[in-house]
Amino acid sequence: MIIDFHVHGKVTAQVSTAFGAEELEQKISEAKTEGLTAFAITEHANCEKFFEAVDFLDKNYNYINQHYDVDGFRVYIGVEVFVSGDLDITFVGEREYIKNLRNTVEQKRGKSRCIALSELAPLCDFDNSLVFLAHPFRRHENFPDIDKNFLKKLDYIELNASDIYKKGESVAKNEVYKLAKDLDLPVLGGSDAHHFIETGSIKNVFTDNCETISEIKQQIKMGNFKVEIMPSLAVRKKSGKLIKRLLYPRILIE
Predict the structure, then answer these.
(1) What residues does 187 pair with on adjacent strands?
(2) How many CB atoms lie within 10 A of CB 213?
(3) Which residues pair with 89 in a beta bridge?
(4) Model pTM?
(5) In DSSP terms, which residues pair with 41 in a beta bridge?
(6) What's the number of domains the chain is made of?
(7) Domain span at residue 141?
(8) Which CATH number covers residue 153?
(9) 81 forms bridges with which residues in the sheet?
(10) 191 contacts 6 by C-beta, under 8 angstroms
(11) Which among 48, 3, 13 is positioned nearest to 209, based on CA atoms?
């Protein structure tokens, strides 16, 4: 199995922009071209149209073994949650759990930009969901003082393609792998793709085939994977950013 655990259904992170079915289909097509057999849609929890991608998949594809079967390509469902401390905890799991988690997070967040980690922790299903820390140094030079006991329950720390593009591979790797070593956690990759051209910029290649979340978690625990950074990563991420600026010139693109 070759999978990317961090793909967005929408072209920008902004809550007001619409989900496009054609864009999702292009992401799947690009992923197949790049050799991926699966990816997870991990939309931001605060997106107003969060459920549009799920609704589209529900109407058009079968959901089995905790993923959608898109003509042999597997699409998992997740959510990226912004927590206090300027960090993003990301979940991939059973469809109904992800939908309920997203709604609960939004209710608890209220008018705040984020949810407190102490409020998120009781909602985490560490046994049945994949839970990881996305781009841990995106907004930090030094990692914030945060509950290490919580962090050690995560499945892994993410090496993010956008951070590799912005900081360089050596710097991004050094930051992430040092944190992972301190927490005794593995490192896996995520493209953080918003535009389809960014899909496939980083891959997780598993030794065995996996279908359910439990199978994926077990393979991660066993270390049966490797992270592959594509030589085209910088071109893909730069192109994606330029395209997003052209499409949405009045929106700040991260």
Answers:
(1) 157
(2) 25
(3) 81, 133
(4) 0.92
(5) 7, 77
(6) 1
(7) 2-247
(8) 3.20.20.140
(9) 89
(10) yes
(11) 3
